[in-house]
# Entry
Amino acid sequence: MYPNVYPEAHEKLMARTLTTAAVRNLRPTNRRRIIRDGGATSLYLVIQPSGRKSWMMRFRGPSGKVGKIVLGPVDLSGRRPSGEPPEIGEPLSLVAARQVAADVHSQRARKRDVVADHKARKHRQRAGIVDRAASTFDAVARTFVEEHMRGRVRRWREVAKALGFIYPPDGGEPVLARNGLAARWGDRDVASIDASDLHAVIEETRRNGIPGIPARAAGPNDSRARVMARALSSFFSWCVRNRRIEVKPTIHIPAQPRSRERVLTEAEIKAVWRAVDRVSARYAAVVKLLLLTGCRLREISELKWSEIAADCKTLSIPGARTKNHRAHLVPLAPSARRIIAAQPRQPGNEFVFTAGNAPIGNYSDWKKKLNALTPGVASWCVHDLRRTAVTHMVEMGEQPHVVELCVNHAGGHRRGVAGVYNRAEMMDERRAALVRWAVHVRAIVSGRRRS
# Structure
């Protein structure tokens, strides 16, 4: 209609009659894609380089200037409240986007300045005057995840999943977990959700698992209840700060268990090291590297080839993947380098330990198999390997502050003023300590040391 609206890209000028399948399958590029829908006037599909998809309209207003309205994110879930017309700002399917576009054109035919009205509505929202249609749990929770959590919080996907949104690992728009909170409370005004509702869902999570997400372990579990309680607490605190609700409902977070003190003995290290190869080669490599480096589970299980030095002498774990958000450079002992070198490298796969194109998982099932193969080893968890490495290294005579640097620990000798002003990396000392520890482990598992 207006060839000068999008003069910069040919794709934007070519109208195609979009289908739901096409909207789902169109992929992002390194530049924003804007695709005109031939099935509705002035309607465009926008695909950001990040993979986010949204609907947009652009046309000339009464003054002759080109105006733009972002109608809302693309909704591919197939779920919409029956009997309610779609509105600007909510997730929209292709059909719903065309309905909204038709309504916009109807308003324009009645001489309404739709762009000006839309800007005024956004101004009211920024001022804290929220439209009721935008105050449902679904809409507010999506905004919370997208604006406050996504890309800013290390485990934002875990929070999103607790609220009922499952984000694809390769990016893109979320889908609703079946019977998750977003599906269950989708149309409820967020202000109507009270402490009784939250207590009920936290207790449900403790007994049966996060709503809409299959539980990994049967029976009551306080750990997953804490995940749900913290996700809800963070969400409703954000709602108060952003004037979505007046008062935060009371949320009881189950008590954190006492700090574990489990350290594997040398006999237990030997038993675990020898038995883990019979469980899974990839799982065995992860367990052994955890013991040799003192790293956390996901720092190793989600290790990427790009994080390994060309000479395989160090790992460079970015701050986005560490608990304290500090980049961690890990010197590798020769035995650790041999474990990494033995891993097959799959073309196009960035992860070292993989299940398809994603990092390996299934830890609980593998751990059960390992437990069955080591009946003489008392109950332990994978994180105990980190504590075991630290404890045994100190007992061997390594300096505590060097050991803390080896495992990227911010407390102890590097807390407070010392941590602020002492930025020495001490790489030589760290490498020597980890090499001595690896030699010690090799002596244990080979039987040259008596436990």
